[in-house]
Amino acid sequence: MRFSRECLELRDLLKLAKGFKLFKKLGQHFMVDCNLALEVLGKLKEICPKRECCVYELGSGLGSLTLFLKSYFDYVMCSEIDVRFADYLKKRFTNDLIDVIASDGIPLISALRENCVLVSNTPYVVSSQIVVAVVKSGIKSAVLVLQEEVARKLAAVPGEPNYGRITAFTQTFMNVELGGSYPPGSFRPKPKVWSTVVVLKRKREWRETMRGYEEFLKCLFNQRKRVLARRLKECLGVAPSSELLKMRVFTAGPEYLFQLYTSSVREAQV
Asked: Domain coordinates of the chain in residue numbers?
């Protein structure tokens, strides 16, 4: 097996992880499942078949995923908010083309170039923040490991119970693809929930002028089961049309909502 060495090193991390006290507020869980790491790497290979992408790993921990990234990509940039792990990563990968930044990695997302891909075994306490930061950045793709509930929300379709503001906002700008789901035993310590691989691919460019759309969705989905026409009047000041009188907010698709917003903005500017 080509990645047998990486998989063996991944097992060694189990022993190493026991020597660190973890902080619940940081949502620290180490990936210890070789199959999960290989799936993430496989998704990245599909996005960057010629290895031409710059790869940014957010929340590298003890390097569980970094092991596999460096086996394929020539250069990897990592961020780790816990200085203990950042120091360990610098020593561990001192002979590799890997830059380790001891910092909160979320603000760095906005500085990434178009050809960069974000990858992260996402700290669950900040998973939604990371998704929103990806949407508002210039990057084209991201491969994330998220808690299953969040993954299902991102991929939900209009009318489903999981369909909400984060769904509509993300799907307006990104295509969402779900990969495999993994049990709590794929991590140490074991989280209480299953996790899913999520791939985000850019379909619409984000611009700062679209912050109004983000606020519009917040207002709209504050009462997701109400009639859409009434919420449009309350959130945009738009007079209800007959076609919207029977439609509920949570049944309206992202593209439809985006068209409603942009058309109302254009009319207001006339």
From this structure: 4-202, 209-269
Verdict on whether the full-model pTM lies above 0.90: yes
User: Where are the strands (E) in 12-167, listed by range?
Assistant: 30-31, 54-58, 76-79, 98-101, 116-121, 141-147
Share of the chain above pLDDT 90, in %: 71
Contacts of residue 109, defined as CB under 8 A and 6 or more positions apart, other chains included, come to: 56, 58, 118, 130, 133, 134, 137, 139
Pairing of strands 76-79, 54-58: parallel
Distance CA 130, CA 158 (A): 23
* C-alpha to C-alpha distance for 170 and 165, rounded to whole angstroms: 8
pLDDT tens-digit map of 153-170: 999 999 999 999 999 999
In this structure, which topology does domain 4-202 adopt according to CATH?
A: Rossmann fold (3.40.50)
